[in-house]
């Protein structure tokens, strides 16, 4: 009898596969001779014939050669460059089923990284959008000149091949319009587009952001050097052709890097920032300021944080990894005091300005790490009732979680954009905190991203 562990899978090998579920990147997951096979584009419940393209020690990657049995939830992706672009992963899956699969991606992470009894855990249905298109308020399109024409778009999945995207259907229509007009302006005035191979040319990227509620648009022209030919003419043409653009900035990025922005930003014309509104709050967005890409769902996300915190007006709150203070300010009216910290000084300055602008006098912000600042506040006799955290994809710093366990706030609200790091972090504090529920929120329809809010309470 052959031991399945001795079965070797080879590149170009073809075999039938039943897809069991979606992986964290939106790919189909199946098992061949007990070995994991990832298949982009395949959906749960489908029976497919695949061809292996890469073999790794613990898994293989394959492509679909034939679909023998289709998922009832498979639909035709409406985007003409969907398969080449790679910016979205789930356009071929019916939207209500996307929401179910995102909840399942969260469950898979908890199965893999925790010892929780999942049947006893309250993992809620994913909160989706009524219209899951045209939601992204910001685009970052690379530019390239081909046969005398300028194309703007995104790099193809796992490659450096630029795919022209004249009309991205998950982008707000204003960003598509502005990108297309900017290309035309550059063509009309023969502005040199940067060429990565020859290292010649000037303009690398157009970054466009729209204030969805205000209609204001900002354009950032990212250049390889400080010199931008015909700068004044470009500014005049933008005013003429794009009256909605109230801010035109130039960012200088001379480095060969995957990072879009360099350190230096100059104002070409108009304001330095645009305004955006969410409920009663107004935010100033400068060229490099972080802001949620889907404001409509952000309101739902923050409202869920407020619900999880369950404030009575007496609580002291910590907004850890606070950025420009958006979450803490959302909760301020129902709290006794808000305190936040972040390691980026500019974010703390923004948080202070935002608090002042909205008349929130009970907010205090400090630059530094939560694991350094929280013990200091504790020594001063200040003890938080609720700690809220919205960390990067890497999850919480282990030192922060150790500090949390020492300080023991009654409630801990964890906003996550990565189910795997969330699961690991929840497991590491599970001896002292009970997970009351996890609420997934779909911030990025048509992609495999899953955001969630976990409510944890201190065990008695």
What does this 3D model show about the protein?
This protein has 460 residues and is of the alpha/beta class. Strands 8-7-6-9-10-11-12 form a seven-stranded mixed sheet, with helices on one face. A seven-stranded mixed sheet has the order 17-16-15-18-19-21-20, with helices on both faces. The chain starts with 13 loop residues before the first strand and ends with a strand. The radius of gyration is 24 Å and the shape is globular. The protein has ten helices and 21 strands. Keywords: Methyltransferase, S-adenosyl-L-methionine, Transferase. Belongs to the class I-like SAM-binding methyltransferase superfamily. RNA M5U methyltransferase family. Residues 8-66 form the TRAM domain. This is 23S rRNA (Uracil-5-)-methyltransferase RumA.
Describe the protein's topology.
Blueprint (H helix, E strand, L loop, with lengths): L13 E9 L5 E5 L2 E5 L7 E9 L3 E11 L12 H4 L9 H19 L24 E9 L2 E7 L6 E3 L8 H16 L14 E8 L6 E7 L7 H11 L3 E8 L11 E7 L2 E6 L2 E6 L8 H15 L6 E5 L5 H6 L5 E6 L2 H13 L5 E5 L2 H10 L6 E4 L8 H10 L3 E6 L2 H10 L4 E9 L9 E8 L2
Parallel strand pairs: 3-5, 10-11, 15-16, 15-18, 16-17, 18-19
Antiparallel strand pairs: 1-2, 1-4, 2-3, 4-5, 6-7, 6-9, 7-8, 9-10, 11-12, 13-14, 19-21, 20-21
Helix pairs in contact: 2-10, 3-4, 8-9
